[in-house]
Amino acid sequence: MLWMAAVVIAGANFMAVLDMTIANVSVPNIAGGLGASTSQGTWVITSYAVAEAIVLPLTGWLAARVGLVRTFLWAMSLFAVFSIFCGLSTSLEMLVVARVLQGFAGGPLMPLSQTLLLRIFPKEKAATAITLWSMTTLLAPISGPVLGGWICENWSWSWIFFINLPLGCIVVFFATKLLLRYELPRKLVPIDAIGLVLLVVWVGALQIMLDIGKEHDWFASTQIVILAITSAIGFVAFLIWELTAEHPIVDLRVFRHRGYMVAVVVMSIGFSSFMVLNVLTPLWLQLNMDYTTGQAGRTIGWTGVFSLCMAPLVGRLAGKLDRRKMVCGGLLWLSGVTALRFSGSTDLTYWQIAFPLMVMGLGMPFFFISSSGMALASVSPEETASAAGLMNFSRTLLGAFAVSLMTTVWDNHATLNRAEFVGLVDADDSLINGLVQSGLPLDVSQSLLERLITTQSVMIATNEIMMVVSGTFFIGACVIWLAPLPRSWHGPSGGQVRASKG
User: Fold this and answer.
1) Gyration radius (Cα) of the chain, Å
2) Is 492 exposed, middle or buried (0-12, 13-18, 19+ CB in 10 A)?
3) Per-position DSSP letters for 326-357, written without gaps between them
């Protein structure tokens, strides 16, 4: 019964995280089907991520007021319902609204699943619980593009959302049977309405600014400047209010634990870098390498296969080694593998593209599982729900921010590269004339030259993003050493070593 309950909880977490990335490879299909541009189509990804980010810090408050298991059941049920609305959308605006509602419902599922696993597993098996949660959280973002690509190729993009309904019903049914015995007494915690409003204002303003910034020429637009100022003022006001309120809706005091704070910062840096790769790679494969949606999804799916193979080993090592070393090693591995993609070209074969993605999967569990366990091991048991919510909030918000920023930078650099190439390539028209003399019509020759310039411009921009991402992985590997030695870990001899609390 314990393991069945664990599978149900992990399944709910898998669904919530899966929907963060299942639309990644489907963006061109969704944008085309709804009459939107590809850059506008990325709102489908960021709107869900930001809605999740807003509700994630509220998890501790919801669990206390509604009940840990009841909140989990309500969130899972509403997640399935709003998934139907997503699939029935007939315009981009309608889909974005539905994705926001879906994100609000799915947000609590990640930290609640983590908290529930730690609650139902005995203390001596806490590492197993964290490993199970981390495996689903890690595998879901990679499985999303694979599943999304297959569905778009064989059915339509709407089904990437419709599939949540039967899965959601199964999870709710078994969760009702297995988890209610673990319910905690409810506490009538007052509603911090001001804190909630400030949270929505600063996060919402930030994401809207990132989504529409490019279309409005960034800070040359009064609208973007107003959004930036609103977000900055809202963030400062939110911090001041939550740190001084008697019953804050977000318990920021968990950041007093240095080990927790550093682990959360490093997890946010590493996961946002990974999300950039996970969004950018399928877009590049489809728009520049002529891969189909399914082919792009299956290609990046190699990362998930190798991550899944490595996760059990990492789980066993977690109780024996200093987690800082495991996090650092994992991030350095990811940085090095990403560096292999600095010199990509449009002549890359399938296996030249797939190999770095494969070996990347070997390092992801070392980083992700270890940083998750390190963060929650640094707080007291009664702070677990709030700590898990804030950890996932930071990771999700920074991931959405990084994706919005990097897709804009990628697009801008591709445009700049193209402008430079236009003035350099075939300045004397010798190439065009040669193609025409070989028998090709003038319009076909011009199209071929345009295609060459565009693909090379995008390829160089992609390589530049790889350099940035490799650098951020490396920064995360350095930052982890600001954390104190975990307060308890099992040394190589099996004895437990006590260390200072972070």
Assistant:
1) 23
2) exposed
3) HHHHHHHHHHHHHHTTTT--TT--HHHHHHHH
What pLDDT, in 10s, does the model give residues 197-219?
A: 898 898 888 877 877 776 777 77
Alpha carbon of residue 53 to chain centroid: 11
User: Do 368 and 398 meet the contact criterion of CB atoms below 8 Å apart?
Assistant: no
| CA-based nearest residue to 152, from 41, 271, 14, 13 | 41
Question: Which residues are within 8 A (CB) of 53 and not within 5 positions of it... i.e. 6 or more apart?
Answer: 107, 203, 393, 396, 397, 400
CA dihedral 281, 282, 284, 286 (to 10 degrees): 160
| β-strand pairing of 496-498 with 488-490 | antiparallel
Burial class (CB in 10 A: 0-12, 13-18, 19+), 77: middle
Give the torsion sign (CA, 408, 411, 415, 421): positive
Single-letter code of the amino acid located at 15: M
Nearest Cα residue to 168 out of 16, 35, 302, 57:
16
How far apart, in whole angstroms, are the C-alpha atoms of residue 271 and residue 418? 31
Compute φ and ψ for 91, nearest 5 degrees: -150, 160
- Of 217, 473, 239, the C-alpha closest to 360 is 473
| pTM beyond cutoff 0.85 | no
Q: Distance between CA 135 and CA 103 in Å, rounded?
A: 21
Q: What is the distance in angstroms between the CA of the first residue and the CA of the last residue of the chain?
A: 35
CA separation for the pair 209, 231 (Å, rounded): 9
| pLDDT tens by residue, 305-355 | 888 788 778 877 877 788 899 999 999 999 999 998 888 888 888 898 889
What's the token pair of residue 488?
Answer: 């308890």
- Joined tokens for residue 465: 């993003």
